[in-house]
Amino acid sequence: MREIIPQKLWLGDAMDARNLVRLHDIGIVAMVDLAREELPPQVTRDMTYCRFPLIDGARNAPELLSAAIETISSLIRKQVTTLVSCGGGMSRSPTIVAAALAIVRRDSPDNCLQQIIDGHPHDVSPPLWADVKKAYNKIVA
User: Fold this and answer.
1) I need a surface site. Which of 21, 41, 79, 111 has the fewest CB within 10 A?
2) Element of type H or E holding 23
């Protein structure tokens, strides 16, 4: 699990999403799950849980991509301590978070993605990134 915004936003994988002790220890109160292929994790009653079952590639519904981006950008704006997770934590999570950060920071998605992946393991799907940028452009238009 990797901290993106100090004490507010983390990226993780499916295993991180299942480690409730650690999540509670660091104060996670909301989880956004982007992994279609993973079973939903068990969360406690006091944790907000949003699931957007995305695939790592093309053919995600544009409305689902937009909803995920807008949900995460809202959580960031409201400073809700959040974990965004996907299967391996290296493609869907960074791309969706980059688009959400671009909205909040009024920056380019490419710049935000570069900041997220720089110096960290990643495996961003080019077709997914292209679709995420299209969704971002419709949101900010």
Assistant:
1) 21
2) helix 20-26
**6: amino acid identity, one letter:** P
Closest Cα partner for 99 from 123, 69, 75?
69
Residue-wise pLDDT for 97-139, tens only, equals 999 999 999 999 999 999 999 999 999 999 999 999 999 999 9
Residue of 100, 79, 67 lying closest to 30 (CA atoms): 79
Neighbours of 49 (CB within 10 A): 14
Q: Give every CB contact of residue 88 below 8 A, 6+ residues apart in sequence.
A: 13, 14, 123
CA distance 67 to 70: 5
- 17, 33 contact by CB (below 8 A): yes
In the chain, where the domains are located: 2-140
Architecture of domain 2-140: Alpha-Beta Complex (3.90)
